[in-house]
Amino acid sequence: MRHGNSVNHLGRTKEHREAMLSNMASSLILSKRITTTLAKAKELRKFVEPLLTKAKNDTTHSRRVVFSYLQNKESLKTLFNEISEKIANRPGGYTRIIKTGFRQGDNAEMAIIELVDYNELLLAEKSVEAPAAKTTRRSRKSSKPAVDNAASSEATSEDSTESAE
Questions:
Q1: How many domains would you assign to the chain?
Q2: Range of the domain at 92
Q3: Residue 5 domain-assigned?
Q4: CATH no. for residue 85?
Q5: Beta-sheet strand order (sheet of 109-115)
Q6: Is residue 58 part of a domain?
Q7: Vertex 78 angle, CA 10 and 40, to 5°
Q8: Tens of pLDDT along 49-103?
Q9: 76 with 68: CB under 8 angstroms?
Q10: What pLDDT digit, counting tens, does each position of 30-54 carry?
Q11: Within a domain: residue 138?
Q12: 110 contacts: CB under 8 Å, gap ≥ 6
């Protein structure tokens, strides 16, 4: 029974799983988006988000802690120099998982995991929609029935004048 065991072992030993997640995290940091299976993407999210949070505080200690997980100097430079500036004011939720269907060979569910602040298409859509979006308070009374009531009252007044003649 798996009472309270929240780790998905992904069919691998602990050492293999840690090495795989480290490599995938480095690839995600360097390329900003990777395609993998859904189970690996969900585990990668749990692995990489604390590292991104740690990278917001650029100290020697945080660099050493993150390097102990990643073991890649290039991804460390990218993380602390480029990515940490973009995610500085974001309180969490640095990654997005998008399901893409099933793999042809073994029917495994595939997904794209990406860094949220690096999807130019969604950022462009938000910047275009931002000025147009106006937040208003919704009320129970809508303006449509009032227009309909006015139109119906005009119609009844016309009918009454026609019947009077």
A1: 1
A2: 14-132
A3: no
A4: 3.90.1030.10
A5: 33-37, 109-115, 95-102
A6: yes
A7: 10
A8: 999 999 999 999 999 999 999 999 999 999 999 999 999 999 999 999 999 999 9
A9: no
A10: 999 999 999 999 999 999 999 999 9
A11: no
A12: 35, 36, 37, 38, 99, 100, 101, 102, 103
